[in-house]
Amino acid sequence: MIEIQNLTKTYGNFEALKSVNLSIDKGTVFGFVGPNGAGKTTTMSILATLLLPTSGTAKVGGFDVTEHPHEVRKKIGYMPDFFGVYDQFKTTEYLHFYGASYGIARPEREKLIPQLLDLVNLSDKKDSYVDSLSRGMKQRLCLARCLVHDPDVLILDEPASGLDPRARIEMREILKELKLMGKTIIISSHILPELAEMVDEIGVIEHGAMVAQGRVSDIQNRLRVKRVLHIRVIDRAEELAARIRDEAHVSQVFSDAMGIHVQFTGGDAEQSILLGNIIASGFQVISYNEVQSNLEDVFLEITKGGSHNELA
Ligand SMILES: Nc1ncnc2c1ncn2[C@@H]1O[C@H](COP(=O)(O)OP(=O)(O)OP(=O)(O)O)[C@@H](O)[C@H]1O
Q: Where is the ABC transporter domain (predicted)?
């Protein structure tokens, strides 16, 4: 649904995007993450046909953003990171305005708008002035506005930024519904653990270059060069810690009141063999688990010190 090839963008002498490649299948929720200034907004603005690329191509639903911007616009709903709402409108009027801009006839809009307000949980605010809505409500109204023409693709630039935790959860629930409706969604965020729960894939961009892209679990696996295992036994923890040091794929061991922590370089099979050896040696294991890294850890690992080439 989205295909970006060798995309570059320069502002004067500054290279904001350096040959970015990105491919997103229909129905995927794609999380676009990267530090401030990495190039997320630039990429999304190009996809939204608001900015021309310097070189390379970007296609949405098979249409090139430079050659067929009008076709692309029919396919996308775009929510910018900063947006204005017309404060003097009521929410319903606001959506009528956008619906009419897309050429949707009034009778159709009369049916559509209550559905949209319901989707974004604003039905009880249908007669409220936009001015009186909270930030979270305005974000949701903006999302409803993006949906008036039933686009296949949603390009959402930091939709959860500046929202309190409750408003973020509401936004996340709405995005889940949109995914169920079959929309392809590209969403940028700094709130990485939040993103992990709702995206199928992530792309990490840093200094204008994609440094990792794939399914969240795959990227986590690729980064798990060293896993951390946490083991609890009924007794003889110190004895077990000393013994584990000699096992294959174990690089570091330390124990504390919480149990034994093992840095492990093996894969799933080796991890299972280690457990077998521990039990065969007569230790009574209460728990044996791998400490899960969350998306925040993954992101920090990928972007630390620029040592990420093997992931590109
Ligand atoms: N119009 C412009 N003129 C010059 N430089 C620009 C312009 N727009 C963006 N940049 C620069 O390009 C780089 C990428 O900016 P962009 O807004 O795409 O990053 P971002 O990943 O969206 O960051 P943020 O998370 O802070 O919004 C930044 O260094 C920014 O300063």
A: 2-232
How far is 201 from 24, CA to CA, in rounded Å?
9
Residue 16 Cβ < 6 Å to ligand 1? yes
Fold of 225-290: Alpha-Beta Plaits (3.30.70)
Q: Closest Cα to residue 304, out of 240, 281, 25, 296?
A: 296
Query: Is this complex scored with an ipTM above 0.85?
Result: yes
Distance (Å, rounded) from C-alpha 97 to C-alpha 120?
18
Spatial separation of the C-alpha atoms in residues 146 and 142, rounded to whole Å: 6
Instruction: Output the CA 10–ligand 1 centroid distance in Å.
Output: 10
Q: Answer yes or no: is the C-beta of 35 below 6 A from any ligand 1 atom.
A: no
Give tens-digit pLDDT for 88-143. 889 999 999 999 999 999 999 999 999 999 999 899 999 999 989 888 888 889 99
Distant-in-sequence, close-in-space partners of 191: CB < 8 Å, separation ≥ 6: 160, 161, 168
Q: What is the CATH number of domain 2-221?
A: 3.40.50.300
**Tokens (6 digits) for 161:** 């930024």
At 235-292, the pLDDT tens digits run 999 999 999 999 999 988 988 888 999 988 888 899 999 999 999 999 999 999 988 6
Percent of the residues in the chain that have a pLDDT greater than 90, as a whole number: 58
Domain ranges of the chain: 2-221, 225-290
Cβ(36) – ligand 1 distance below 6 Å: yes
DSSP string, 124-161: GGTTSBGGGS-HHHHHHHHHHHHTTT--SEEEEESTTT
CA of 33 to the centre of ligand 1 (A): 14
